[in-house]
């Protein structure tokens, strides 16, 4: 007779079967453009994060100044000198308008009460964009009377082709585009 086998685990002579990979979850349903409930939501204005100031395919220069009453006096010659180094030789009336608009932009940014003011200058196709950013968080997005007055003062200069302002978490941006 054969010997009895001792009770205990017997190692298998083959590897264990591996479980199948998990199935891919189904895709979420596609949006239905005819859904009136979602169409009403799409028609409302949704605030989005403001993209930082960016310049592509054009020359640009920026300066960071202390937010003080004399900041405009430092920015004016810097802007005019930079435009001259780029080869712009505008008429005296245009040059005076560039200086006055730069002063208005910087004074508006200083009035916001931040610690610093940055001035950004770029050019393209015979036009220059001057932008002043007041680094003062917590400003409201509504345009007050003083903001309206600044925009009206800027547009009073003939070489100005456009101006505007917006407010974000990093302060208020106020800008003007001038034809050189």
How do the strands and helices of this protein lay out in sequence?
Elements: H1 36-43, E1 59-66, H2 71-85, H3 92-111, E2 116-124, E3 127-134, H4 145-155, E4 160-168, E5 171-179
Antiparallel strand pairs: 1-2, 2-3, 3-5, 4-5
Report what the structure shows.
- With 180 residues, the chain is an alpha+beta fold.
- 30% of the residues lie in helices and 24% in strands.
- It has four helices and five strands, in the order H-E-H-H-E-E-H-E-E.
- The chain has helices spanning 36-43, 71-85, 92-111, 145-155, and strands spanning 59-66, 116-124, 127-134, 160-168, 171-179.
- Strands 1-2-3-5-4 form a five-stranded antiparallel beta sheet, with helices on one face.
- Helix 2 crosses helix 3 (92-111) and helix 3 (92-111) packs antiparallel against helix 4 (145-155).
- The N and C termini lie far apart (113 Å).
- Mean pLDDT is 79; it is low at 39-46.
Helical segment count: 4
Apparent shape:
elongated
- Mean pLDDT, all residues: 79
Q: Structural class of the secondary structure composition? A: alpha+beta
List low-confidence stretches. Answer: 39-46
**Main sheet, how many strands, which sense, barrel?**
5 strands, antiparallel
Query: Tally of extended strands?
Result: 5
Distance separating the two termini: 113 Å
Computed CA radius of gyration, to the nearest angstrom: 32 Å
Order of helices and strands: HEHHEEHEE
Q: Name the beta content range.
A: 15-25%
Which strand order do you get reading across the main beta sheet?
Answer: 1-2-3-5-4
Helix content: 25-40%
């Amino acid at each position: 007779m054969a010997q009895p086998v001792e009770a205990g685990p017997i190692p298998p002579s083959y590897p264990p079967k591996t479980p199948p990979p998990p199935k891919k979850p189904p895709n979420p349903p596609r949006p239905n453009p005819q859904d009136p409930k979602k169409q009403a939501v799409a028609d409302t204005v949704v605030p989005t994060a403001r993209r930082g100031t960016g310049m592509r395919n054009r020359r640009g220069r920026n300066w960071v100044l202390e937010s003080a009453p004399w900041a405009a006096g430092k920015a004016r010659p810097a802007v005019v000198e930079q435009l001259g180094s780029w080869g712009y030789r505008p008429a005296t009336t245009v040059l005076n308008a560039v200086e006055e608009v730069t002063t208005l932009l910087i004074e508006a940014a200083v009035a916001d009460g931040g610690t610093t003011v940055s001035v950004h200058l770029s050019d393209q196709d015979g036009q220059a964009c001057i932008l002043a950013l007041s680094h003062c968080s917590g400003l409201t997005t509504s345009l007050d009377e003083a903001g309206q007055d600044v925009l009206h003062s800027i547009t009073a200069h003939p070489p100005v082709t456009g101006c505007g302002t917006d407010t974000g978490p990093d302060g208020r941006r106020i800008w003007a585009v001038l034809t050189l």
